[in-house]
Specification:
Pectate Lyase C-like, mainly beta, 45-stranded parallel β-sheet, 469 residues, 45 strands, 3 helices
């Protein structure tokens, strides 16, 4: 290993150590070892892997710190990979000189308003492990082209831009795992304007990534998300969001998980993602899906959305199964009402859901962001081929379930009840079905009486085996 002190680095937090690092990179053995200290950079350390050969930068158990005092990334990793991850597509020199550049066990701190952390482009198997990135603009920026990106056991904290930004990128295979990503003003993990396949976001704590702690004037006008996926002009498919804690302080129009595809009249260009086993709560929208196709949402605990726990709009082929949608009773009397809305969507399955409202039936928290104009705890509007099976809706307000202008929609084995004491009852009806439609069926459901009649049906709804009060 090449000790950067042997090449002139001082690590005193005052001297510009960039020339010493460049000297070590040029004349050392490719492994930059950083003893404890504060190493100041005036501009980026650019690592051109084709020229430098195999590269790693390693701190000493996190005791070394890089202070980025200039604009741009502290570390810029540049490779020449231009094909896919297929073994047949590699040139021998890529394996000889460029594969798996590694950065680990080091802290990178911004001391310039335009300082970034690590930038990756054209690289096969870039690996970040045990890196703390804070007070930067963008902590990790992957762009251009990359393959087999691994970000593991990192702390990405209190940055003015994005935590992990996959932007204008052609990417196959990326794993973000076992990391803390929090207090980044423009989002935790952001994928946009890219051609991306195979992304796994697993076992992370991703929270508070919005403007609330930064307090930048006017910044709340830009909605953000803990995980933000926008196809733009590209295509983003084949991903997993699993076993994470994903939660936030409220931000207007913000979301914990936000998917934006393309026009539903054409190829949605976004979807084929599994979202499972996560704890998701306390944003304006907890999960918000727009114009995407092929999403499964299962095994999650989703709670205390300010507007909706789940909003599905202009989507198709969506499966929502075996989730709990709830509020947090520990915060009584500061309650947030929950809700699910499906609108202008086709081929949606809602199965095995437990949906229970705040007891007040409305927001009672002063910082809730305004009054929620919700018609029912579960709303399905202008949608086709929606199937509700084994869904339990408790304490709806003003309605349990609203269906409007729906066709080929089936409710079987569902329970809609008012669970509050009679003196506090707020559910007017269990189910209200309005508007035109055809081919609709309700069967084997338990429907409780609210303050009005239990149900209200148009003629196009076939009903059988209903238990009502």
């Amino acid at each position: 290993m090449s000790n950067v002190r042997d090449f002139g680095a001082m690590g005193d937090g005052v001297m510009d150590d960039l020339p010493a690092f460049e000297h070590c990179l040029r004349d050392g053995d490719g492994t930059l070892e950083l003893p404890p200290g504060d190493y100041r950079f005036s501009k980026p350390l650019v690592v051109r892997l084709k020229e430098t050969g195999r590269f790693s930068l390693r701190g000493t158990g996190g005791a070394a710190r890089i202070l980025m005092a200039g604009a741009g990334p502290a570390l810029s990793l540049l490779g020449t990979h231009t094909t896919t991850a297929d073994p047949a597509g590699f040139r021998p020199e890529e394996w000889t000189r460029e594969r798996m550049p590694t950065v680990g066990d080091v802290e990178i701190v911004g001391e310039h308003p335009e300082a970034d952390g690590v930038r990756i482009e054209g690289v096969m198997q870039p690996t970040l492990a045990g890196v703390l990135l804070r007070k930067l603009r963008t902590a990790v920026h992957v762009t251009g082209r990359a393959r087999n990106v691994l970000i593991s056991h990192c702390h990405i904290y209190n940055n003015t831009g994005v935590g992990v930004h996959l932007d204008k990128l052609n990417l196959h295979q990326a794993i973000i795992t076992g990391s803390h990503i929090s207090y980044c003003r423009l989002g935790g993990i952001r994928l946009e304007q890219s051609e991306i396949r195979n992304v796994q976001i697993t076992g992370n704590d991703i929270e508070y990534n919005n403007n609330r702690s930064h307090k930048v004037e006017g910044a709340d006008a830009v909605p953000t998300a803990e995980i933000y996926i926008d196809t733009g002009d590209g295509s983003i498919r084949e991903g997993t969001i699993a076993s994470n804690t994903i939660q936030a302080t409220y931000s207007p129009g913000g979301a914990n998980i936000r998917f934006i595809g393309q026009s539903p009249k054409a190829n949605h260009r976004g979807g084929m993602w599994a979202i499972t086993g996560n704890l998701i709560g306390s944003q304006d929208y907890n999960v918000w899906l727009t114009s995407v196709r092929g999403i499964t949402l299962s095994g999650n605990m989703i709670y205390s959305g300010h507007q909706r726990n789940l909003l599905i709009e202009h989507c198709r082929n969506i499966v929502v199964g075996a989730n709990v949608f709830d509020h947090n009773p520990d915060y009584d009397p500061n309650e947030l009402a929950t809700g699910i809305r499906v609108v202008d969507s086709v081929d949606v399955l809602l199965q095995g859901l437990l949906i229970q409202d705040a007891q007040a039936g409305k927001h009672t928290w002063k910082d809730a962001g305004g009054t929620l104009n919700r018609e029912a705890l579960l709303e399905i509007v202008r949608s086709r081929r929606v199937n509700l099976s084994g869904v339990q809706v408790i304490d709806g307000a003003p309605l349990g379930i609203l269906l409007d202008e729906c066709s080929d929609t089936v409710l079987t084995g569902c329970t809609v009840l008012e669970g509050r004491p009679a003196a506090e009852a707020r559910m007017e009806q269990a189910i209200r079905w309005t508007g035109a439609g055809a081919g609709n069926l309700v069967s084997a459901c338990r429907l409780g009486r609210g303050t009005g009649p239990a149900v209200d049906w148009p003629a196009h709804v076939t009903r059988s085996n209903l238990a009502t009060d």
